[in-house]
Amino acid sequence: MTPLYRRPGFLLRRAHQLSVGLFENECQSLKLTPPQFGVLHMLMHSQTMDQARLARALGLDKVTVLHVVRGLETRGWLTRQASTTDRRKWTIKVSASGQEAFAQAQHLAQQASDRLLSPLSQDEQEALTHLLEKLCQGLESEARTPFEPGQA
After folding, report:
1. 148: which DSSP letter?
2. CB neighbours of residue 40 within 10 Å
3. Residue 118 is part of a domain; what is its CATH number?
4. What is the pLDDT of residue 146?
5. Which of 60, 145, 150, 151 is the most exposed place for a label (fewest CB within 10 A)?
6. Residue 1 included in any domain
7. What is the structure's pLDDT at 85?
8. Does the residue 77 lie in any domain?
C-alpha cells in the first residue's frame, strides 16, 4: 500500500482535503467555502461579471458556479441582473453585505493559507507554489474545465 501514498495524485488530493478543512475551520463563523470565497474575491476585484466569465476565471464548471452564486445570492451577498446586451446572460455583483463578509473573510482565508503552509520553510513554500503553478500551466490544455485567469 505504501506506493499509493507516494503517488502525486494521492498527495495532491490529500493536500486539497487538508486545505479545504483548514479554510472551512477558519471561516466557520461566516459559513464560507473556498469556492464561495473565490467567487466573492473575483467579483470584488472586477465589480461585475457574467456567470460564464466567472466560471472560466476560477476554472470551475458553469453548474458549480451557478450553485455557488445562488447560495451567495440567497444569503444576500450577491445580486444578479439580466444583462442589458444579452438576455441569456446574468451580470453578478457583490452587495454591501457581501462586501462586509468578504472583508472579514480575507483575513481568515489568509490564516488558513498560512496554516496550510506552516510545516514548510519560506523557501519551501515558494518552491511548492512555483511547482504547482508550473504543473497547472503545463497541463492546462488537458483540463476538463477552461481556465482563463481574471484580473483579480
Report:
1. -
2. 24
3. 1.10.10.10
4. 87
5. 151
6. no
7. 81
8. yes
Burial of 141 (0-12, 13-18, 19+ CB in 10 A): exposed
For the record, the C-alpha cell of 137 comes out as 500551466
Residue 102 per-residue DSSP state: H
Residue 67 C-alpha cell reads as: 450553485
DSSP string over 11-75: HHHHHHHHHHHHHHHHTGGGT--HHHHHHHHHHHHHSEEEHHHHHHHHT--HHHHHHHHHHHHHT
User: What domain range includes position 121?
Assistant: 16-142
| pLDDT per position as a tens digit, 66-97 | 999 999 999 999 999 887 887 788 889 999 99
Q: Is the residue at 70 inside a domain?
A: yes
What's the average model confidence in pLDDT over 52-56? 92
pLDDT at 104: 96
